Amino acid sequence: MTEASALPFATCDLCDAHKNDSSGNFRVLPPVFMDFGAVQKFSGQVVTLKCFEDNTLVKATVDSAGAGRVLVVDGGASLRRALLGGNLAMAAARNGWSGVVIDGCVRDVAELAQCRTGIRALAAMPMPTEKRQQGQLDLTVQIQGVWIRPGDWLYADKDGMVLMHEAAVA
Questions:
Q1: Is the pLDDT confidence value at 108 over 60?
Q2: Taking residues 44-67, what's their average pLDDT?
Q3: What is the four-CA torsion angle of 66, 89, 39, 165, rounded to 10 degrees?
């Protein structure tokens, strides 16, 4: 996994370069996400997942090879159940996921802070999910009013998160 300090981007610079983009290929996520992982700066190609209060597919995905990608989970902005906890975050780090962004909640905050991957979510919630074997993988999702497609590129740092249709050029 690439160390955060070696990543050659700043979201502010990307916004400066694309501030007049009206094509929809450059998008900025609103500043509602909290930082929970040990890695605060991360980037990678997006894998999308949609699930509501059921993290069965989150577990299956982080248990697979991440190859430096970022998992973006449309959890319906639910604040009632945590879609990611310490065990799944450690699996994401171990399997090479650059980051996990959840439009929903996480738990095991102390464990997440030790996890060597980027983790962003709306809030912490100690209640676990139900296991109903539901969810969808690799579809276009809308998170906080922003459309995210599988294969987009996500860049995250302390200033925020941006999405691009193609990888940023150094």
A1: yes
A2: 98
A3: 40
Give the pLDDT of residue 170.
Answer: 61
Angle at 12 between CA 62 and CA 23, to 5 degrees: 80
Beta-bridge partner residues of 162:
28, 155
Is the dihedral angle over the CA atoms 17, 23, 25, 27 positive or is it negative? positive
CA distances from 136 to 57, 91, 113, 152 (A): 8, 20, 28, 17
As a whole number of angstroms, the distance between CA 73 and CA 170 comes to: 27
Rounded Cα gap, residues 37 and 133, in angstroms: 26
pTM: 0.94
Helices (H), the chain: 11-18, 56-62, 86-94, 109-112
Q: Please provide the distance, in angstroms rounded to a whole number, between the alpha carbons at the two ends of the chain.
A: 19
- CA nearest neighbour of 55 among 125, 109, 111: 125
Taking the C-alpha atoms of residue 18 and residue 14, their distance in angstroms, rounded to an integer, is 6
d(CA 18, CA 137): 29
The dihedrals phi and psi of 167, each to the nearest 5 degrees, come to -60, 145
Q: How confident is the model at residue 4 (pLDDT cuts 50, 70, 90)?
A: very low
Q: Which residues contact 162 (CB under 8 A, 6 or more apart)?
A: 11, 14, 15, 18, 26, 27, 28, 29, 154, 155
